[in-house]
Amino acid sequence: MDYVHLGRTGTSVSRIVLGTMNFGDRTSEEDAFAIMDRALELGVNFFDTANGYGGAGGRGTTEEIIGRWFAARPGVRDDIVLATKVHSPMVDPTPDGDVVNARGASAWQVRREAIGSLRRLQTDRIDLYQFHHIDRHISWPELWQAMEVLVARGEVVYTGSSNFAAWNIAQANEIAKHRNFLGLVSEQSLYNLVQRSIELEVIPAAQNYGLGILPWSPLAGGLLSGGSSDANARSATARVASQREERVDQLAAYERFARERGWAPSALGLAWLLHQPGVTGPIIGPRTVEQLESAVSALDIRLSDDDLTALDELFPGPGGQAPEAYAW
């Protein structure tokens, strides 16, 4: 396993991040335990979840599964850099809409949801507490006050963001600096060969402020996986099938490129991200131990300049960062 500092922090994390969104939904608790056991054996020490994950099992189920895994394996918790998120509602909406104060990042909501996550995860701290989305109705002084209290209590170590625009990152960290607070150290964004928009502004902003980029959906919802016979996979949907049909020639060329070099298409998609500036590690979401092991094999792929150029030609990016990408 390869390790890198999480953004500008001194904490080392694995370059493969174990995403757990399938746990309790498409992956049983027994299989989730096996995946986490094997991840630890492979050196994966960075686990990512969210308060609202659980799918068919119900909101919070994923955190509960991780908590039971910790409880069944005394001493393991200190080997894991544990990340979770706040913003999603934890109760179903009423016919009139969301329950009052059910979603968002007010100080009241952040404190309540932190208590809930700590209880479900059966832990005394959250190593990386992330705003799952920008909350445009809450001021940064209120957001940072809430996080400062959690950090002072020892219940949160670092803070991060997810799905933020570049200006959100800049605003957040400029205000944090004036409060003598560390601010955001990571940003989770949609990033893969198919969707490269964050190269325009988010990646430059993250690099400037010392945030590690954690790409989610690194295989574009399964488009870059080379196809799957797993009927329970997220890629086995009509939407993904339609997208594959729209890109049939492009994906065929991509899969041929990978196999000519002896690589699995899914591993190549992850390897490409590992070669991109500012990327800490892609967040993978394995349903099985075999999928986890395949993902980790991406660390063995070394892409040459010619390989990277060929992939750019297959999946053109926005042309670099803004404004050069479109202004001249």
TrEMBL record:
Domain NADP-dependent oxidoreductase: 15-314
Xref: Pfam families: Aldo_ket_red
UniProt-listed InterPro entries: AKR_Detox_Biosynth (IPR050523), NAD(P)_OxRdtase_dom_sf (IPR036812), NADP_OxRdtase_dom (IPR023210)
Domain of life: Bacteria
Family annotation (Gene3D superfamilies): NADP-dependent oxidoreductase domain (3.20.20.100)
Identification of the protein by name: Aldo/keto reductase
